[in-house]
Amino acid sequence: IDDLFKSLQLQRVVNMYQLSNRERGAWQDCGGGVHSGLVDDRHKVVVSRLPVGVSPSKMKNKLTLFFQRRQNAGGEVLDVKYPAAQPDQAWVLFRHQRDAEHVLRHPVRVITINEQQFPIQLKSFEDMEVRGGQIRIALHRFFTHSFCTGLHYSKNLLLSILSLEGCSFSSTDVLEAVQSCRDLPSALKYLCHDCPICQEQISFNRMVTMTHCSCTFCESCFKKYFSSVIKEKNIVHAVCPLCNLPDVQRGRREESMEYFSLLDTQIRYYLDPQIHELFQRKLRDQALQEMPNFRWCAHCCFGLLHEADRLRMDCPSCGKSTCFQCKRPWAPQHEGISCEKFKEWEQLNSPEYQNSRLEQLLSRNKIDCPKCKFRFFLARGGCLHFKCTQCQHEFCGGCSQPFKQGSACSFSTECGAKGLHAHHPRNCLYHLRDWSHKQEATIIPCICGVMEFQESGAVKEEPCGRPALPDYSGYCTVHYKECLVELINNNALDPVVLLDGVELRAEMDRWKVPVPDKQPLEPDQRYEDRLRQVSR
């Protein structure tokens, strides 16, 4: 390789980035009597941006005193070489490596020379050695690859990039840039891609392009994002972090399968085998859940395809049974009756049912997703907007009506100007929670003890703590209303009988029902009754 350098006159370039044996000997002999075996390059710090024209002896004394002061986090200085490789540079040698490391923690300093303050910059001396080594490695790889494969790339382009001031590109990235580009601007563009997530400058070969949307971000962000999603979330969240595409829930099944097939290739290449295995397992479970006759066992983590024409589903793993429709553990009393009738029987025959009816309604109530029928425990104290963690369906926890975004709702043309919204029926808690009580009651020193989440994001339930009214069986107004609304819904009652004329017209206008005009001399009560008939 030396003969090759001589023929191309590149030896001078390499010499600019490495220390010769004479320079190393001069450094060791410049003072202090330090043997070469006692210190190495890790003890040295490069000081840049020093004022030019100061006598070497004065500068050495200044730097020695400056870096030996305790307030500058320095230590014992063995020697100072000034000027060094550049007129504004000095090399400071510390006795202990830890002193050099402490000094480098604050790379920008201010030093006073001749009653003037100068900002100086500190760098590790090893960086200069690494820099020269990078160029030698890059040149070796470049010429070896070029002559072995018969390719002829521009050596000047390679040296131009490596010789740039402040260049921090790796030799591998620079070599790939030279092989892919024909001029310096295009090579620098290849090496300087901004990641839109971490805002770091990354070489093009370290950027990852999503297969569906063509969004691009760095390899490190790809690994962190998809590792977190695969470990902590449902597989439907494994979409592009920039544009949230594709829409796996609302999109075509064929499109989703193609996307996950291509994503599987990327995850297998970039992520650990354990994460790739977890990804495939979650992808399999998601595909099974979309099958109409697949159910999870209510007793263990086993799932099965139920083909028999009956509600009872026997698990081959644990040997226990589950109801195929309501997904509850099977009981002998369920045989021959519907899930609704079995639920009523279970409630009526529960030992605690007669004494704890209100607690059962107000504590942790079960709620089923209206789309995938997955069952959850709904804790009181939150908002009515509910998002299923399995199928991502958004619905109201009070009436199960879907939440939709703007124009995605086809109820009326006015929906296009709205954000995320739902069309709640009049018996939903969304409307009834604001009703005022006509009956006044005297507040007694009684506190509602219903357990709920007091704050958003809380992980522990606490007693409600609101004052309870005497006529509400020891419960506060909020939870008593929730109980009444649930009873109204369970008994299919219509609150339209309690709406006055203004509320009736507002209800009809909300559902885009034409409001009939009031006839001349028609009594208000008869007109309201007519509006109720139209609203039913």
UniProtKB/TrEMBL annotation:
The keyword Nucleus does not apply. Keywords: Metal-binding, Repeat, Transferase, Ubl conjugation pathway, Zinc, Zinc-finger. Residues 191-427, 195-244 form the RING-type domain. GO terms for biological process: protein linear polyubiquitination. InterPro entries: BRcat_RBR_RNF31-like, IBR_dom, Nucleotide-bd_a/b_plait_sf, PARP14_RPM_1, Rcat_RBR_RNF31-like, RNF31-like, RNF31_C, RNF31_RBR_mRING-HC-like. One of its GO terms (cellular component) is LUBAC complex. CDD domains: BRcat_RBR_HOIP, mRING-HC-C4C4_RBR_HOIP, Rcat_RBR_HOIP. Residues 515-536 are annotated as: Disordered. The keyword Cell inner membrane does not apply. PROSITE patterns: TRIAD, ZF_RING_2. It comes from the Eukaryota. This is Si:dkey-181m9.8. It comes from Sinocyclocheilus anshuiensis. The lineage of its organism: Eukaryota, Metazoa, Chordata, Craniata, Vertebrata.
